[in-house]
Design brief:
alpha/beta; five-stranded parallel beta sheet; two-stranded antiparallel sheet; transmembrane; Cell_Envelope_Assoc; DUF218; membrane; Rossmann-like_a/b/a_fold
Length: 191
């Protein structure tokens, strides 16, 4: 019985150490990664309320506007399908938001089929290939960037990253940083 308790205790300690290492990777990546001049800016999908971007999605779109206006990319890919409670796809809501902010329609490309970060990046890569775009800046919330970087590498996107942190929703942001440990662990174990 003592041997079993020792093994359980060692496994618990191992899980805690791995969790701490993953959390460090997530936070370190989030605050050290900087965008680089690229061909395209990819905005990862996020919730839409009816047809209005959620506060997290709006922050991502505002970051895309800033980077586009500063010359970080000639195009913006807005990704995300239509989820439950959404009147239109996340990509369409993002496109509408960017159009209202003065981005030319020809500069906005959409992926309205994706329902996960993996699909966001996989379908964005397909769009990049069709347009012969080689390098991207990927935008999401800071807590999401490390996982997005692992997936981007797997689908073949050469990328830099730019993250947003919505202070008004600090509890949700902190929860995101904590939840990402499990999501990143899953991504590492998946392949």
């Amino acid at each position: 019985m003592k041997m079993i308790l020792k093994i359980v205790w060692l496994l618990l300690v191992l899980f805690i150490i791995i969790g701490i290492i993953l959390e460090w990777q997530i936070i370190s990546f989030a605050y050290n990664e900087k965008p680089k001049k690229s061909d395209v800016i990819i905005v990862l999908g996020c919730a839409v309320y009816g047809d209005i971007p959620s506060p997290f999605f709006k922050a991502r779109l505002e970051e895309a506007l800033r980077l586009y206006n500063e010359g970080y990319g000639r195009y913006i890919i807005v990704s995300g399908g239509k989820g439950p409670g959404e009147n239109i796809s996340e990509a369409e809501a993002g496109k509408g938001y960017l159009l209202k902010k003065g981005i030319p329609e020809k500069a906005i490309l959409i992926d309205d089929k994706s329902f996960s970060t993996y699909e966001n990046l996989q379908f964005s890569k397909e769009i990049m290939d069709k347009k012969s775009l080689k390098r991207a800046v990927i935008i999401s919330n800071k807590f999401h960037l490390k996982r997005a970087s692992v997936i981007a590498k797997r689908v073949g996107i050469e990328a830099s990253f730019s993250g947003v942190f919505v202070r008004r929703y600090i509890n949700e942001e902190i929860y995101g940083f904590l939840r990402e440990v499990v999501a990143l662990w899953y991504i590492y174990l998946k392949r």
